Amino acid sequence: EVQLVQSGSEVQKPGESLKISCRCSGYSFTTYWIAWVRQMPGRGLEWMGIIYPSDSDTRYNSSFEGQVTISVDKSVSTAYLQWNSLKASDTATYYCLRVMSLGAGWFDPWGQGTLVTVSS
Amino acid sequence: QSVLTQPPSVSGTPGQRVTISCSGSSSNIGSHNVYWYQQLPGTAPKVLIYRNDQRPSGVPDRFSGSKSGTSASLAISGLRSEDEADYYCAAWDDRLRGPVFGGGTKVTVL
């Protein structure tokens, strides 16, 4: 069974750094792109960026470029989403997704989501 | 403001048929396949329809998708209480060089 299991909820203060994870299993990790999507409270879905684990080729939504860093560790089949300095507006649930086909909006499966709360 | 436009909400009584529209442009729906996701309360979205009108195994045939030009729609026939969820359309966008989503439609079963 293909599974994407994300790290648990986080509560952080503005200005702090954070790295959340997405452990992938049940398939060949290096052969599918991984995407990260943000869902702010009560809002819709926003694509943040994608990464190809085989060579770490990474592409960002221009709205998120410079704000976050997406990376992978092939040795543990895990993708990461990282912030250097959190803002209150980063409060959201973040999902990692397996990209079924680059150039399509086809994601399957999704991780269970990681709730990040940024508050002083 | 989402790139793809969906109605914020639709509602129906059990057994009814409801449809959700998704409007885009030539750079997304007009050039690429459309995907639909169902997000049940408190859970992650899951794919409901892929490549415009294909259902993954396990998705009831009450759910159907279609696409015409720069618009797509999702129909739910024989509405059931367990269909109460948020539904999102998605497609690749050539101008933004990435996937785009609709704002989501909340389906309420009266």
Q: Briefly, what is this?
A:
The complex is a heterodimer of chains A (120) and B (110). Chain A has 120 residues and is mainly beta.
Helices and strands in order, then pairings?
The complex is a heterodimer of chains A (120) and B (110).
Chain A: E1 3-6, E2 10-12, E3 18-25, E4 33-39, E5 45-52, E6 57-60, E7 69-73, E8 78-83, E9 92-99, E10 107-110, E11 114-118
Parallel strand pairs in A: 2-11
Antiparallel strand pairs in A: 1-3, 3-8, 4-5, 4-9, 5-6, 7-8, 9-10, 9-11
Chain B: E1 9-12, E2 18-23, E3 35-39, E4 46-49, E5 63-68, E6 71-76, E7 85-93, E8 98-101, E9 105-109
Parallel strand pairs in B: 1-9
Antiparallel strand pairs in B: 2-6, 3-4, 3-7, 5-6, 7-8, 7-9
Explain how this protein is built.
The complex is a heterodimer of chains A (120) and B (110). Helices cover 0% and strands 52% of the residues of chain A. Chain A is mostly beta strands. The radius of gyration of chain A is 14 Å and the shape is globular. In chain B, the strands form two sheets. In chain B, strands 1, 3, 4, 7, 8 and 9 form a six-stranded mixed beta sheet that branches. A three-stranded antiparallel beta sheet of chain B has the order 2-6-5, with no helix packed on it. At the A-B interface, strand 5 and strand 10 of A face strand 7 and strand 8 of B.
Notable characteristics:
heterodimer, A: 120 residues, mainly beta, four-stranded antiparallel sheet, globular, B: 110 residues, six-stranded mixed sheet, three-stranded antiparallel sheet
First-last Cα distance of chain A: 40 Å
The biggest beta sheet of chain A reads: 7 strands, mixed
- Sheet of most strands of chain B: 6 strands, mixed
Q: Structural class of chain A, please?
A: mainly beta
Largest inter-chain contact set: A-B, 22 and 27 residues
Number of contiguous helices of chain B:
0
